[in-house]
Write a structure and sequence with these properties.
The structure holds two protein chains of two kinds. By secondary structure, chain A is an all-beta fold. In chain A, 0% of the residues lie in helices and 47% in strands. Chain A is globular, with a radius of gyration of 13 Å. Chain A has a single domain, classed as Immunoglobulins (Immunoglobulin-like), CATH 2.60.40. In chain A, the strands form two sheets. In chain A, strands 2, 4, 5, 6, 9, 10 and 11 form a seven-stranded mixed sheet that branches. In chain A, strands 1-3-8-7 form a four-stranded antiparallel sheet, with no helix packed on it. By secondary structure, chain B is an all-beta fold. Chain B has a single domain, classed as Immunoglobulin-like, CATH 2.60.40. Chain B contains no helices and eleven strands. In chain B, strands 2, 4, 5, 9, 10 and 11 form a six-stranded mixed sheet that branches. Chain B has a five-stranded antiparallel sheet with strand order 1-3-8-7-6, with no helix packed on it. In chain B, a hairpin with a 5-residue loop joins strand 4 and strand 5. The radius of gyration of chain B is 14 Å and the shape is globular. The N and C termini of chain B lie far apart (41 Å). Classes of the chains: A mainly beta, B mainly beta. Chains A and B meet through strand 4, strand 5, strand 9 and strand 10 of A and strand 4, strand 5, strand 9 and strand 10 of B.
Chain lengths: 116, 112
C-alpha cells in the first residue's frame, strides 16, 4: 500500500474489556514495530517483528499485551483486560530493514485508545 | 539505560523567525539518528543522520549530527505557520531490532 495503515483510528473501551489493534505495513517491508505514545511524551518501543518472527518484545508492559504477525504482513496488537493506564496512542511503523537507509521507519497515524 | 533528551520542550516564535531544536543522546549502541515531524497524524520522516557528520538539507530545514558531543540540531529558517508541529528526535539502536529510542519531542508553535 501507499503508507502504513492502522485501524481503528479511535477506540473507547471499558476497563476489563479486550481490544485488538490492526496494522497494515507498507508492502514489502520486512520489519514492523509497535510503539506506545502517552500524552505529551515521545513514543516508546513495545515490540518488533522481522517477517513473521517476533524478535524483540522487551517493551511490552505486561503479559496482558500480545502481538502477532502470522503471515509476515498485517500485524495485530491485542490488549487483554484493559486498564486505565493503557490509554495512549498506539503507533505502528514499518521499514525495509537490514541497515542504512533501510532503517528508516515509516509510521501509521496511530490508534488512540481510551479506557474508561 | 538508553536516553534521548530534546530541548526546548516547547517553543513559540513569529512567522519568519529561525529556530534551532536540540537533541542529545546517551545510548549503548548508536546506529543512526532520525528526525520526525508529528502533526495530528502519523509522524513523518524528515532526516536520517549518521556518524559521518554530513549535514542534511531539505528546503528551509537542515540538520547535522555532532558525534563528539552526542547531539544533533534541527534548524528551520524563515518559519511558516505550517511548520507548527511536534518535532521528534529518535536514535536507531544497533542490534537485531534497530528499535527507536525517542526524545520527548519539541512542540513548535509559529504565530502569524
Amino acid at each position: 500500500g501507499a503508507g502504513v495503515s492502522q485501524s481503528p483510528r479511535y477506540k473507547v473501551a471499558k476497563r476489563g474489556q479486550d481490544v485488538a489493534l490492526r496494522c497494515d505495513p507498507i508492502s514489502g517491508h520486512v520489519s514492523l514495530f509497535w510503539y506506545q505514545q502517552a500524552l505529551g511524551q515521545g513514543p516508546e518501543f513495545l515490540t518488533y517483528f522481522q517477517n513473521e518472527a517476533q524478535l524483540d518484545k522487551s517493551g511490552l508492559p505486561s503479559d496482558r499485551f500480545f502481538a502477532e504477525r502470522p503471515e509476515g504482513s498485517v500485524s495485530t496488537l491485542k490488549i487483554q483486560r484493559t486498564q486505565q493506564e493503557d490509554s495512549a496512542v498506539y503507533l505502528c511503523a514499518s521499514s525495509l530493514g537490514y541497515g542504512g537507509g533501510r532503517d528508516i521507519q515509516y509510521f501509521g497515524a496511530g490508534t488512540r485508545l481510551s479506557v474508561l | 539505560e538508553d536516553k534521548v533528551v530534546q530541548s526546548p520542550l516547547s517553543l513559540v516564535v513569529h512567522e519568519g523567525d529561525t529556530v534551532t531544536l536540540n537533541c542529545s543522546y546517551e545510548v549503548t549502541n548508536f546506529r543512526s539518528l532520525l528526525w520526525y515531524k508529528q502533526e495530528k497524524k502519523a509522524p513523518t520522516f524528515l532526516f536520517m543522520l549518521t556518524s559521518s557528520g554530513i549535514e542534511k538539507k531539505s528546503g528551509r530545514l537542515s540538520s547535522i549530527l555532532d558525534k563528539k558531543e552526542l547531539s544533533s540540531i534541527l534548524n528551520i529558517t524563515a518559519t511558516q505557520t505550517g511548520d507548527s508541529a511536534i518535532y521528534l528526535c529518535a536514535v536507531v539502536l544497533g542490534g537485531a531490532a534497530q528499535k527507536l529510542v525517542f526524545g520527548q519531542g519539541t512542540r513548535l508553535t509559529i504565530n502569524p
